[in-house]
Amino acid sequence: MGSFLDRYFEKVVVKTMLLTMISCFVAGLTLFYFHTIAQEEMLRTEISNRSEAVGNSVVRLLETAIQTGIPFDEMVGMNEFLQSNMKNSDELSYIAITNTDGILFYNSQGFEQSLRGILKRFSLGSYENIEKLPPFEISNKYYDIPLKIKNNNIDEGYLHLGVSKKSMESRINDIYYDILTILFVAMVTGFEFFIFIFRNNVTNSFLDLVSIMKRIVADDYTRTSVKRTKDAVGELIQKLNQLVSYTAQNYYQLIKKIEKIKQADASKDDQYHHIQETLIEETDGKTFPATEMPKQDVLQPVVENLRLPAFLLVLAETILVTILPSYAAQFYTPSLGLSQQFISGSPVLVFMLFSGIAIPLSNKISYRIGFQKALIVGLVFSTIGHLLAFLTTGLMFLLITRAITAFGYGIAYASCQNYIAAYAPPHKRIQSYAIFAVAFGAAYICGAPIGGILVENVGYNITFFFAALSAIFCIMIAKRYIVDFTNFTLQKKRETNRRPRQLFKNMPLFFSVFFSGLPARMIFSSLICFIYPLYLRHLGNSQSSVGRIVMIFGVVSFALSPFAARIVEKIRSPQIIMILSSFCIAGSLVLAALMDTVAGASISLCIYTIGAVIHTCSMMSMLENIAISEYDNHTKDTILSFYFIFERVGMVSGPAIFSVILAQYDFKLTLLVMAGVVMVTAIIFSIYSLFNRFQGNTAALKGANA
Amino acid sequence: MKLSSKIYFFVFLTITLTLSLLTVLMHFKYHMTRSELINARFSILAHDMKWVIERGVKLGIELTELKNVQQIIETGIKQDKDVSSVTVFGFDQDAVEPLYQTTPSALDPNLSRHIMESIFSTKRDYWSFEVEGTGYIGINFKDALGAVLGGLYMTYSVDLIDKEEIKEVQSLYLRLLISILIISIISYFISYKTIKPLDDNLLEMNNVMKDYLENPNSRQVHDLSLIRHPDLRKIFSKTLSASKHTLKSFEQVNKIIHEVEKS
How far is B37 from chain A (nearest CA, A)? Predict the structure, then answer.
């Protein structure tokens, strides 16, 4: 019965979700289509105007020269002069000057001699009364914009500006991709919002209804379901609850009556036994509460509800991550005695440092006030930081605000992880961690483009305000939907018999963190934050192309994380997956270094992301296993914090180390060094795992039994 | 509240939010691309004028002593109909001091501060900003040693330049409204068709439950035929029978208790 009901409601949910997503996508594509037509038209017009502006400046000088008496066909150094003007417009392929008969006098580099005849044919037209000549398609490679050269209002000749069709198309394609990115960002944001709102208002109600119907059919009257909504499902749940309560009350009254009979007359002992036997017989297999009223189900912590808050938490940060370096650079003055690069990177460094400090503190705070409250405290700090940044006037003030935000972010981030660790169902632990990874991936995809667009349109300060809004929205959701146990303060942190520093002596943890987790994080932060963007720029990509290629990381991790988590959950030896994924990461870096092309870099980024996602999932699985084997000695949160702290260390130290190598050598060597680091640590980790696999598994088994 | 209305509301909310976000981002992107291209176009004219003036400066002649600057900017402004004025400026301590202007006017101290900030914060070879409907685009003059001695800025009417953009933005938002409207109507019918049967079934189940709760111990047989979905009907019927069976068994026990009490 349950499975049918589950399937029935699931079908309704899936149908509705599909309907919404398809509607959104179709409408989005329609808007995209019409908008790109307008963008394309604007782009063509403005590029032509810009080219004309270059042409006008040349024409003005030429006309001055002609008026001073220099013969039009005997000017010296004209080809070089035309060439120097070309640099003002990226789309210009040539500038050529002809007389009114179409005879070519001067031309810049890039002018194809085959075009001479076409220019001659052009001059056959009658343009005396036309002030602005229309652009025309001179060949399948160029558009030609002709401008008149006059001497005392008499046409002396024409200046031809050749606009490359290819570069125009490339600009238009860039715009297409940028708007497509925006479409994707809007869809992901809408999807996250819809999943959350639908789960909390419809899906969970269906589950509650299924649960109470299942219980009644199984003759279990001990509990009533939660009535979350006021719709038809909520009403039905309420009525079924009334039925359960009524039945439980009836049962309780029967018991009371029987007790009364026993107490009233001891001679009726036989009859009492007869009634009791009848009751037992009649209610055989049925379950009733011990009290008059059945227990009401309380809202259980649902880790899936973390997805939207986690998305908003990371979004508030990723909105700022790409704009902070340029914002900090504005405050650069040589009197500070620091390099401009250091000033640009300082907000990121401060952020990493303070979030690293906050993570271990988060554990203490969480166990004192509860995960939900700790999350809210972190978010409040984060919001205050963003709001203060809105008022920033100098570098020091900006760094202080970043420190406050980072502290809050660290607490909130670790609280989310601790919440998952505490409440994830045992068979879905890694999948629950993947929820966080998916939220991170989605926020990573959305944050950077939104931040870039916001900053250009509303400025830095208002962008901070938007980040604050995202954090405030996150607080509201956390307050309403993140359920924690209400008697949390009574659930003291489990006493353990060892101090956290003794975790260094735990060899599986030591090797996992220092020979797999830390190097992977070092590579991640260096590669995604600066090496890949710089490398792609070095390969000749525009800034927007770089953004799009790096977005592969967000898209692949967003799509792959849930599947990777499911697979890793089923595999008993996560260390094997960790080793394989480390080799995959190293392989992707070698590929990027050896291929040295955009396609190679894109493929390698794709492979890298697959490796990184699988590595993260298997690392979490490994930590789970270690937590089980260390049950008597350390809590899981202590073990997770241990990893998170060194994860942060890796995130900070990676860029610092590899930027020095990149400054000294080239991209190829840096990528190979990175691959070498991952490879060597993976080999050490595999040797250790090979010798300790049996022991580790036995220990884990013992822990699990315990 | 009907479930179908509620679900439809969520669908509508999501579609509206997603499409609005998409439209706002597309609007911003359009503005960014256009501003960038327009500034690049103006910067060409600015470069053109700068090239001539800066040559004099690099020869060591003071900006104030250059004789042809006024003529250069007067000719320059005629090159682009969108440019409203051109000003060549130097510095008076930490403020901007206009030296030559096509349209003479006093410089507001706030504007002067704004220009000073832009001069030293720009990463491009020109700087630009907008204040109260006027766009400013400027370029710096440097001496032979690379020190900034002054510059020139051009102004243009943002409203005039943005006329075309406003047209596109208006049609962008109009398209958004039409899309929301069309998609809402379509999704209403689809969701109505998808959720309506469940809605009817839930309504009927609620009615039956209401009847049943009014007198749970009655032997009345409830008509479940209006629950159209056969499996759902079967499950609901099972739920009711289970409850009825339990209550009936209580009745049995109650009967015996009564008999005992009577005896």
Answer: 6
Please list, in sequence order, all residues whose beta carbon lies within 8 angstroms of the beta carbon of residue B242, skipping any fewer than 6 positions away: A216, A217, A218, A219
Strands B127-131 and A154-164: what pairing? unpaired
pLDDT of residue A385: 93
> Would you say A643 and A619 are in contact if contact means Cβ atoms under 8 Å apart?
yes
* pTM assigned to the model: 0.77
B153: three-class secondary structure by DSSP = strand
Nearest CA in chain B to A192: B14
The token duo for A495 is 């006493």
Query: Does the distance separating the beta carbons of A279 and B260 come in below 8 Å?
Result: no
- Residue entry with tokens 């911003």: B28
What's the Cα-to-Cα distance from B162 to each of A41, B34, B39, B167, B217, rounded to whole Å?
Answer: 15, 9, 13, 8, 76
| pLDDT higher than threshold 60 for residue A700 | no
Name the DSSP letter for residue A334: G
Burial grade of A563 (CB within 10 A; 0-12, 13-18, 19 or more): middle
A129 phi/psi in degrees, rounded to 5: -95, 0
Name the helix (H) or strand (E) containing A168. helix A165-198
> What's the mean per-residue pLDDT of chain B?
83
Contact check, Cβ <8 Å, A221/B44: no
With b meaning 16 or more CB within 10 Å and e meaning fewer, what string describes B41-71? Answer: bbbbbbbbbbebbbebbeeeeebeebeebee
Q: What is the DSSP letter of A114?
A: G
Q: Are B79 and A8 inside 8 Å of each other by CB?
A: no
pLDDT at A673: 92
Q: Among candidates B104, B84, B96, which has minimal Cα distance to B120?
A: B96
